[in-house]
Amino acid sequence: MTAEEYLSAIERAHARGDATEHTYRADLKAFLESRADIVATNEPKRADCGAPDYVVSRRKDGLTVGYVEAKDLDVDLTAIEKGDQLGRYCQHLPNLLLTDYLEFRWFVQRDGKSRKEGSARIGRFGAGGKIVSDPGEHAKALNLIDSFLKQKPAPINSAHDLAVRLAHFTHLIRDIIIEAYASGEASQQLRDWRDAFAATLLPELHSHLDDKKEKQAVAEFADMFAQTLAYGLFSARAASPGGRFSHEQARKLIPRTNPFLRSFFEQITGSALDEEPFAGFVEDIIQTLGHADIDNILRDFGKRGRRTDPVVHFYETFLHAYDPKLRELRGVYYTPEPVVNYIVESIDVLLKEKFGLKQGLADR
After folding, report:
1. pLDDT grade, residue 90 (50/70/90)?
2. Measured CA angle at 182 (ends 180, 183), to 5 deg
3. DSSP 306-352
4. How wide is the angle at C-alpha 284 spanned by C-alphas 281 and 285, nearest 5°?
5. How many CA within 13 A on the CB side of residue 294?
6. CB atoms < 10 A from the CB of 267, how many?
7. Hey, is 238 helix, strand or coil?
């Protein structure tokens, strides 16, 4: 679809008089896909719960290129840009396009901060409902769209880089779950997961609470669910750093010694996940782990000591990126192995000498 064909399609749909922002989505999809070798997936259900309207991925390997948030024609994009929803998207998504189908605004993350790279109009309504465009502005808009579509995933070579990227997607998954409950869109599968978390991990998460406690319980469940999901996937990736990474591999790599996590991943790697509004961001986490230089990241932990377990100690790095206040509240800080050994040995000696336990820590 050429730009001229796209504008003609928008013009015809608008002229019918009954168009909504959803009316133009198929045309925008076709237009974007004509500009590059990509697939623009429109997911209305996920958009209703706080995910962007389109996920744009490369056709050759499925890697996510970016996201598109589409508003109705003539909506005030400046007001949208200042709103909480777009602020959240810009904070957590590395490549985002905001549009009312005629104007396009492009946002990218540079050095951990979101920045608007530019904005331009491909056309505007003139007399009689006709769409007209200035040649210079039209060309600028096409260049902006093409630049958005050609963005490449930034390299992930350190534990910090990986933690920051995972934290962004974990935030979005958490927020979508909270919104799903608030809007009455939480699926039965999501409610079942909550019951499983309540039964196995934290009884306070159970359902049927008063409004105030329910809101808090949903927030805690969403936070715990999102972290378990992201960190479980990291654990699986760390267990098999070589080669490609997929849902199926993640399920197989969760150790049998953790039956709750294994059962959880058997569910989220199946078809049940596909219907959830956060499913696209789970795929982004898997892609991120597959894209990261995981061998180099795991070697980085070896500098602290030969027996340092990256799965254990990466959580400090991850939690610092995800929620520094929660990290302080939980006291999640790396303790050097010699210090840990000294503390353990000292307790062992005290138990033997002061409490008469001959085997120290091994005494029952």
Report:
1. confident
2. 65
3. TT--HHHHHHHHHHHHH-HHHHHHHT-----HHHHHHHHHHHHHHHH
4. 95
5. 21
6. 15
7. helix
Cβ neighbours for 234, distance < 8 A, ≥ 6 positions apart: 162, 166, 289, 311, 314, 318
Element (H, E) at 106: strand 103-110
Residue 2 structure tokens: 């050429």
Query: Model confidence over 213-225: pLDDT tens digits?
Result: 778 888 888 888 8
For Cα atoms 154, 179, 69, give the angle at the middle one, nearest 5 degrees: 45
What lies within 8 Å, CB to CB, of 224 at 6+ separation is 197, 201, 202, 205
Could you give the C-alpha distances from 348 to 158, 227, 335, in angstroms and in order? Answer: 37, 34, 19
The phi and psi torsions of 55 (rounded to 5 degrees) equal: -110, 125
Longest CA span, the chain: 95
Cα–Cα nearest to 332, from 342, 341, 322: 322
Residues near 133 by beta carbon (within 8 Å), at least 6 away in sequence: 7, 121, 122, 123, 124
**What residues have CB less than 8 Å from 193, skipping those under 6 apart?**
225, 264, 267
| Confidence at 330, pLDDT banded by 50, 70, 90 | very low
- Alpha-carbon gap, residue 361 to 347, rounded angstroms: 8
DSSP3 helix / strand / coil % (the chain, rounded to 5): 60, 10, 30
What is the C-alpha to C-alpha distance for residues 82 and 315, in angstroms, rounded to an integer? Answer: 33
CA dist 321 and 272 (Å) reads 29
Q: Is the pLDDT higher at 305 or at 216?
A: 216
Tell me which residue of 232, 231, 239, 243 sits closest to 291, measured CA to CA.
243
> Residue 154 gets which letter from DSSP?
P
C-alpha span between 10 and 161 (Å, rounded): 41
- By the 8 A CB rule, do 120 and 141 touch? yes
